[in-house]
Amino acid sequence: MQRLALASIDIQDFGAVSARTVVAGVEAVCDPLGALYLPETRLLVVSDLHLEKGAAFARRGMMLPPYDTLATLKVLEAVITRHDPAIVVSLGDNFHDRVGSAHLPDVFRSKIAELARGRDWIWINGNHDPDGTVDLPGQSADELHYAGLAFRHEPSLISPAGEIAGHLHPAATVIRREKAVRRPCFATDGRRLLMPAFGLMTGGLDLRHKAMTGLFNRPSLVAHMLGRDRIYSVRFANLIG
Amino acid sequence: MSIIDSAAGLHLLPSPFADWFAAKGWQPRAHQMELLARATAGESLLLIAPTGAGKTLAGFLPALTDLTRRGKIPPGSAFTGVHTLYISPLKALAVDIERNLMKPVSDMGLPISVETRTGDTPQAKRQRQRLNPPDILLTTPEQVALLIANGEAERFFKDLKYVIFDELHSLATSKRGHLLSLGLARLRRLAPDLRTIGLSATVAEPMDLRRWLVAQSPDRENHAGLVTAPGGAKPIITILKSEERVPWSGHQAKYAMPEVYEAIKAHRTALLFVNTRSQAEILFQALWSINEDTLPIALHHGSLDVGQRRKVEAAMAENRLRAVVATSTLDLGIDWGDVDLVIHVGAPKGASRLAQRIGRANHRMDEPSRAILVPANRFEVMECQAALDANYLGAQDTPPVGEGTLDVLAQHVLGMACAAPFDEDALFAEVISASPYTRLAREKFGRIVQFVATGGYALKTYERYARIRKTIDGLWRISNPQVAQQYRLNLGTIVEMPMLNVRMVKRGARGAVGRGGASLGKVEEYFLEMLAPGDTFLFSGKVLRFEGIRENECLVSQAFSLDPKVPAYAGGKFPLSTYLADQVRSMLDDPQRWGALPEQVRDWLALQRDVSALPKRDELLIETFPRGSRHYMVAYPFEGRLAHQTLGMLLTRRLERAGRRPLGFVATDYSLAVWALDDLGYSFAVERPSLENLFDEDMLGDDLEAWLDESFMLKRTFRNCAVIAGLIEQRHPGKEKTGRQVTVSADLIYDVLRSHEPDHILLEATRNDAAAGLLDIQRLGDMLMRIKGHITHRRLDRISPLAVPIMLEIGKEPVAGEAQDSLLAEAADDLIAEAMGETQI
To answer: Looking at chain B from residue 777 to 816, which residues have their Cβ under 8 Å from any Cβ of chain A?
Structure first.
């Protein structure tokens, strides 16, 4: 929830709180709110919004708070306002379940329409929502190839070069003096970049988890971790001090 | 009541019983006969008796005699429900009791069927028990909750006469006890004539338990009758007087190992109690490192594999062991063979706990128990002495029953909807008949029902997904059968920390890990997060090498080092009880009482008196001194670690606001240290701020609220409440959630809820819980009130003798809140340095 607090702060020196990185020759900025911005193409990437997660659980009998969509959209609004992108790519698992976008309360639907006004919006399909979105602006796709990069939900095992993917909710753990701190992160080795989950009610998977093995060239892997008010960039090898 | 009086009650014993007692050469004890007479006459009763007083037999006598008179039910008769419920806090205890009870039942040839029903009972047997209940059912609180939430509960319990609660002092004072009190309220509705019998060790407030046992009415207080058994022989307790130097701080008592080992050698079987699992591991390893006679010494704690624990218990029962190192898993009254010595390593933290543990030696009333206390540091020497005085004085400091919690109530409400459609007002009346819930407001109950239905949110978007609905007849009923299925899977109040199984593997030549070997037990996942592959740690009595995590298992291999890199992992710790704290303070204040303390401790106190001051019983001593580039304040409230932690958080907040630049704090059971960049001694001297203001009670107002909301401790409490209240499932039909998944989402749910609906009933439940337990706010409030106008400040040039123990703790405290980001910054700076072309450190 530190991101929700951060979203309401007017940041003076954005350069000091964000992190620059390069993926397959394309410049990108890691925003501390959990979005990736490509200045050359004015493209903003967010991943794993998991909208309507609370409602998805309520449908199964667990009455989680119905405020997650509202909170996630607030942060999304802040990051869109900051960068005013021409294109927004939502990298899959946009909704927590298949019926999520169809059952979306109207108030949220009009909020998304407002955010999308005047820009292109691409919904990449994820494993939670493979059928695309219902009654929302923009278009759905399984993958997007644009400006020398490939945008897809799940990282592919064959072609890492220039891939921006989500799905795994990467998180990194820093250990110093026998104390551990774990935070969501952007993970990149310069060839591929994995996006942190943007949804506010989502968990994380550690970079050391076996699901991450083989995805990165570890010697050049850097975790851009989401701190309380800025990004902290830590080399994989330096996570454990 | 004397034996002669009790003979008057003998006519109550049917002949097989009188003959059986005679054949054994036993005389029924006075309290057994008194309880039998009064229960038979229709009274509900609390029996308070020390270990070994024949408590269990006393509890069952009314039921056994009643059933004997009734005789066997002829086959083909109409359905007969269960006659007596026996409820124990431990599965193992229920099983143990079955063995002990079946012996007299079969000796006397009584026409009585006795069966257990626990989580381990096979499905087929449970099914059969529902159709054809035994006369006496031995079970656990969770099984009672399951049985009353069943559609057939009414039939099953219609003939219920007695409900026996074993170890009621331990059962009643927890959330489990709250759930059980609600279950009892339902049982009373199903069988209005039932009588309750509570069996308990000595407690501070017997009246709490007496109320707990019977229905409360809005206009007056009701309580069960009281039967007390006389105490047995006084225990012989000594404090280990070591030749070695008693350390300033720490909890390991390694200095005393040779003497502890000698004591084990000099007795048949010794039980060694410690307070935490990590202490158990360390003690066990230390003993084996000097076990030259290879005495059979075993280890027993709650995280070990069940199979391994059962082996130790069996070996114990057969007297094959010379010593067992154990945590509170062995506290409760299971009979473990011939223990003739209890060694308590570390301070017992509470006089009642010590009495219970010492009762484990020599389970016979007429022989005195033998116990040795082994203090691990100098403060513990005083604490042990205080506890020892207390045990002779018969003082007690058991925890109170406490106000019924809302999360438990939510679980119960859903359970009652699963049993049958309910009327909200009628259920409310039933709920407030349970003593922990008598003060529950009707409005709050209504909010709980709403919570159960749809989550109780201000934003009403879940109506169509409601779990229970009010139908046209005005009754609440479950929306579909899956709701009942989910309820049954998630019932209970014991919320486990996310744990991973520890499995031994072989390490190949090039680090490759082979297939899994034996399972050693479970460790908390947060502990493993701190380990990197290759790190070594102590668990299950072995030094293990951490290999990695595979699915839900932590893989380890045998390490060939004796010196684990990571000491061990911390289990639960009990805070020092208010009673003992007061005793320690009064001992410090009274040099007359120092005579009982070892010389080195006396010297330490005398030195403190000379260079600073000793805290008086009713005042608060504050010392300030510089050290290195920092300025320290050490306070000595003696109110236990939890209260001190809360105090530390609040003091640093206030010092921050006063511009004194505090950097951190650390708390122990006895004292609290805060350090800052500014000269705190000078600041207090010129009253910026004054100590009176700094320690003013108003800190428990807004500062507390503000801090609580950010506290990581509250998140943990929230997780427990959310799981118990049924907001988060531990298990969902078809898929098991791992602990990790539950934790992550509980924290996130807490944050979302707090920022959008801070008045939600579950947040209220969380705050209540935290205030009562985790943070010891009540105790802190009492302390602040007590010391008002009684603060003594000593400005010193350097550290005082009394401050040494806490100063040694600095750096061992866990990291929380903003400090987390400073760790990140530390790690990230490495990269910046590297990027700037500087050499890496």
So the answer is: 811, 814-815
Separation of alpha carbons B382 and B389, rounded Å: 11
Radius of gyration of chain B (CA): 29
The token pair that represents B795 in the structure block: 């400005």
**Length of chain A, please?**
241
Find the domain containing B518 and state its range. 499-558
- Closest-CA distance of chain A to residue B642, Å: 21
pLDDT in tens, B208-217: 999 999 999 9
pLDDT tens digits along B613-666:
999 888 999 999 998 888 999 999 988 887 888 888 889 888 988 988 888 788
B200: number of Cβ within 10 Å: 22
Give, in order, the Cα–Cα distances in Å from B511 to each of A31, B502, B544, B734. 39, 18, 15, 36
pLDDT exceeds cutoff 70 at B1: no
Interface test with A, best of B418, B450, B461 (most A CBs within 10 A): B461
CA nearest A2 in B: which residue?
Answer: B751
Looking at the domain assignment, is residue B701 inside a domain? no
Q: Which parts of A49-156 fold into alpha helices (H)?
A: 53-59, 68-83, 106-116
> Which residues of chain B have a CB within 8 Å of the CB of A229?
821
CA distances from B658 to B425, B584, B621, B690, B706 (A): 52, 33, 21, 10, 17
Q: Whole-model pTM?
A: 0.82
- The residue that leads in pLDDT, B54 or B393, is B54
Residue type, A237: A
Q: Classify residue B161: in a domain, yes or no.
A: yes
Is B192 among the domain residues? yes
Instruction: Give the range among A175-189, B64-78, B372-386, B742-756 with minimum mean pLDDT.
Output: B742-756
Where in chain A are the domains?
Answer: 2-9+18-238
What's the confidence (pLDDT) of residue B160? 97
Residues 6+ apart with CB under 8 A from B51: B201, B333, B356, B359, B360, B363
pLDDT tens digits along B62-114: 999 999 988 888 888 889 999 999 998 877 777 778 877 888 899 899 999 99
Answer yes or no: is B404 within a domain.
no
Q: Is the Cβ of A204 closer than 8 Å to some Cβ of chain B? A: yes
Regarding whether B104 and B32 lie in a shared domain, the answer is yes
B575-604: pLDDT as tens digits? 777 778 888 888 889 888 888 888 888 999
Rounded to whole angstroms, the Cα distance separating B400 from B579 reads 13
**Residue B487: closest C-alpha in chain A:** A61
In terms of domains, do B383 and B319 share one? Answer: yes
